[in-house]
Amino acid sequence: MGPEVTRGLWLGQRRILPVHRGPYTSPVDILAAGARKEIVYLEEYGQPVRASKHRPANRSYKQSPRDHINNLADYLQVAPYLVPSDASLTRHTIRHPDLQPSNIFVNEDLEITGLIDWQYSTIRPLFLQCGIPANFQSADGDIPSLLQEPRLPDGFDRLSEADQHCERELFRSRWLHYCYLTATAKLNPPHQAALTGALGVLRRRLCHQAAVPWDGDNVTLKADLIQLTINWDRLVRSEDANAAACPIAYSQDEVNECLQLNTAQVALDEQKRLSREVLGVGSEGWVAAERYDNVKACEEVLKIDELSVADASKESIL
């Protein structure tokens, strides 16, 4: 499996680090590689920084890389337990890392004729490769669900034109998400099994958060580790009834503080994502020219709603 060519393992001075980037002989090696890389980098080059993302939930003072190193060390202790015992979930898989319409070429018969932007592809176990492409994720998140077909809200006809546009965009994203999941269940059962495996989302999130270049965020990885300790019995029972106790632990004060910060961060991230989904714009604000006027109208509705909420909050404080 591997070797890894993802940018996170090569960004900045990381490119000169004497760390192993594959090929790997086991899933555990892949789970650990990103964390080991980041520990070596932070030990050599890490400096206290303020979190680079606009997250008011983070403390205003600079964050220490030592805290993240400690989180990564905790992650490495639990990494071996993240590998599923089901061999079908650890089989070697290659997948396009950025599957979106602009990277797919089709002919007039809608047959795929080519793919581009696949240079960061790597071979990894299925339980780490599985996922829902960004263009098929809905405003409700990427948690797989086949239970309810999306519908427009009751009273849709009575909404203003701008509100109807927003609801249509929300419905569109939910419908794409639903169709992708139903098609996956029918045409690609192994992928569906990996998507819905026990704690699959948490396993993938831990691996990802441990490997991303540190930007001052000492909360997200630790919050996921705390969730793992909370769900430890569920994890080990799904793999080995005689598995050992969780090798990491946190005090109740640590848990409360971290989860409170993480909840605030997640709420802000979700608000941003929902706004982009409703508007139908990318993370950098790009929108197709023919949709510009409609998006601007929807943006004005969101702006008015947010300002009214802010004014109400201000009045309640006063």
From TrEMBL:
InterPro entries tied to this protein: Aminoglycoside_PTrfase (IPR002575), Kinase-like_dom_sf (IPR011009), Mito_inheritance_9 (IPR051035)
Occurrences of domain Aminoglycoside phosphotransferase (ranges): 64-125
Pfam hit, one: APH
Gene Ontology terms: cellular component: mitochondrion
Highest taxon of source: Eukaryota
Protein name stated in the entry: Aminoglycoside phosphotransferase domain-containing protein
Species for this entry: Aspergillus uvarum CBS 121591
Highest classification ranks of the organism: Eukaryota, Fungi, Dikarya, Ascomycota, Pezizomycotina
